[in-house]
């Protein structure tokens, strides 16, 4: 069969010349595809154009919530041409009954363990089933080397290759779907396979897509040690608890780590108490960022606004935290009720979700009514934080400690911040999105994209 794998993207998010972390999913699916099939990949974020009239036999579409409506549009076009459509990805897993209305099959959860091969066999024999799901999470010890030749690893001027060492997260934050998709226990790939994969990448820079690459100290210690001879430079995600381990921080740096995205989630007293990812006080988190920086690692701080514990004070508290800690970068997110999370169920039951237009679910738009502040104030405060943080004065105010780290770190710091500044000024500045009065919030996507029918 001739197979097309698609990663959809909204027209407004296409950015072929700006920094974007490449996705790993499609290259893994391609690697699981038996060699008898011919595989093509389309990543719309990089400006790839879909040829709907090509002679593909099967179309695989990976869905995230903010891209699913675009994915359904693509499916409709192919259904008009009587093509077989298979959906996968985190949104299809959370909303399989929704996705199946637009396609022929939905892969629920991970596709390893022979599941994708089963889908292809059924499709080839015209016996495809509506839903495919493993009985348990797949064993990552059976390593799959991604088809990197099929994906783009260059965004703007930087080439960076995605790589994966683990899956799963024990934190189980109520607004996050990761633990529900990948499990609450971290699973590891074989270190020799991870190192072989990293070594095979022609790119010098890597991005670990793991939610917490340093969570298991024994595993991380061995992985970092084995990566030192590769002389790769990498960034990834980790818990701030890494800052309490001087030995592991130094080893991470030696292995090539130069920056980590750390989910602080909230700097309010209530927020710190609710999420185990942070240390116990604002001052402890400030010192932790300094320790990481002293060990050569930049901190990309992720903070969520619109939590039920947030009050009007959250914006000043966060601003003061940024002034004190001087993180290399701020990932400012608005609370977004992704399907499959506890937050989604709670807010839906309380009728505090303002729109069911999935295309607005990108953590940069106000789509909920917070508990203790108005949607309008959430929008204003969020816009103020981003305007201030990505302003030229703030960028240079936070720059000195990173300049003192060295030239590569300085270049990374300014690239991150001026890239974020450009993206922010090209964005819609966090508008509030509400359904019109005549459009019920019933999560029926047919009112946005009508399923194709003969």
**Distinct helical segment count:** 17
Shape category: globular
Distance between the termini: 24 Å
Secondary structural class: alpha/beta
Our Rg estimate from Cα atoms comes to 22 Å
**CATH architectural label of the largest domain:** Alpha-Beta Horseshoe
Mean pLDDT: 91
Helix content: 25-40%
Multimerization status: single chain
Sheet having the most strands: 7 strands, mixed
Widest β-sheet, arrangement of strands: 7-8-11-12-13-14-15
Beta-strand share of residues? 15-25%
Number of domains: 2
CATH topology name of the largest domain, in short, is pyruvate-formate lyase- activating enzyme
Low-confidence runs: none
- Name the CATH superfamily classification of the largest domain: tm_1862 like domain
Task: Find the count of extended strands (DSSP E, 2+ residues).
Answer: 15
In CATH's first tier, which class of the largest domain applies?
A: Alpha Beta
Give your account of this protein's structure.
- This protein is an alpha/beta fold and 454 residues long.
- The protein has 2 domains: 2-133, 3-Layer(aba) Sandwich (Rossmann fold); 157-425, pyruvate-formate lyase- activating enzyme, CATH 3.80.30.20.
- Helix content is 35%, strand content 16%.
- It contains 17 helices and 15 strands.
- It has helices spanning 25-32, 68-80, 90-94, 96-99, 115-124, 178-182, 191-200, 217-227, 246-254, 269-274, 282-294, 314-325, 342-349, 375-389, 392-397, 400-403, 407-425; strands at residues 2-7, 38-43, 58-62, 84-88, 105-108, 131-133, 154-155, 158-163, 166-167, 187-188, 205-208, 233-238, 257-265, 298-305, 329-334.
- A 7-stranded mixed sheet has the order 7-8-11-12-13-14-15. A 6-stranded parallel sheet has the order 2-1-3-4-5-6, sandwiched between helices.
- The longest helix is centred in the C-terminal third of the chain and has 19 residues, at 407-425.
- It is globular and about 60 Å long.
- The chain starts with a strand and ends in a 29-residue tail after the last helix.
- The model has no long low-confidence stretch (mean pLDDT 91).
């Amino acid at each position: 069969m001739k197979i097309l794998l698609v990663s959809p993207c909204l027209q407004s998010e296409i950015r072929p010349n700006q920094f974007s972390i490449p996705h790993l999913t499609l290259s893994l699916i391609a690697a699981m595809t038996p060699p008898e099939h011919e595989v093509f990949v389309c990543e719309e974020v990089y400006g790839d154009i879909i040829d709907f009239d090509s002679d593909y036999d099967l179309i695989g579409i990976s869905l995230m919530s903010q891209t699913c409506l675009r994915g359904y549009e693509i499916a409709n076009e192919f259904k008009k041409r009587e093509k077989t459509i298979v959906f996968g990805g985190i949104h299809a897993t959370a909303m399989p009954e929704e996705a199946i209305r637009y396609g022929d099959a939905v892969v629920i959860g991970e596709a390893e363990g022979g599941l994708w091969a089963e889908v292809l066999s059924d499709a080839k024999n015209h016996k495809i089933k509506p839903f495919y799901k493993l009985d348990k999470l797949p064993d990552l010890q059976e390593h799959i080397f991604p088809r990197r030749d099929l994906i783009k690893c260059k965004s703007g001027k930087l080439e960076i290759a995605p790589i994966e060492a683990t899956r799963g997260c024990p934190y189980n934050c109520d607004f996050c779907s990761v633990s529900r998709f990948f499990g609450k226990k971290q699973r590891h790939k074989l270190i020799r396979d991870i190192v072989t994969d990293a070594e095979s990448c022609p790119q010098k820079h890597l991005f670990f897509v793991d939610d917490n690459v340093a969570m298991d100290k024994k595993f991380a210690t061995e992985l970092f040690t084995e990566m030192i001879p590769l002389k790769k430079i990498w960034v990834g995600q980790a818990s701030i608890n890494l800052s309490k381990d001087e030995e592991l921080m130094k080893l991470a740096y030696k292995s090539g780590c130069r920056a980590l995205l750390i989910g602080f989630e909230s700097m309010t007293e209530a927020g710190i108490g609710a999420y185990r990812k942070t240390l116990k006080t604002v001052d402890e988190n400030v010192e932790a960022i300094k320790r990481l920086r002293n060990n050569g690692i930049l901190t990309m701080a992720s903070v969520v606004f619109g939590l039920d514990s947030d009050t009007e004070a959250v914006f000043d508290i966060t601003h003061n935290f940024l002034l004190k800690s001087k993180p290399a970068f701020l990932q400012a997110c608005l609370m977004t009720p992704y399907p499959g999370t506890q937050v989604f169920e709670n807010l839906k039951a309380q009728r505090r979700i303002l729109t069911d237009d999935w295309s607005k679910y990108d953590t940069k738009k106000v789509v909920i009514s917070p508990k203790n502040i108005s949607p309008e104030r959430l929008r204003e405060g969020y816009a103020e934080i981003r305007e201030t943080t990505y302003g030229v004065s703030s960028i240079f105010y936070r720059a000195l400690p990173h300049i003192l780290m060295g030239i590569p770190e300085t270049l990374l710091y300014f690239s991150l911040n001026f890239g974020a500044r450009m993206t922010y000024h090209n964005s819609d500045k966090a508008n509030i999105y509400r359904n019109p009065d005549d459009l019920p919030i019933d999560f029926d996507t047919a009112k946005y994209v009508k399923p194709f029918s003969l």
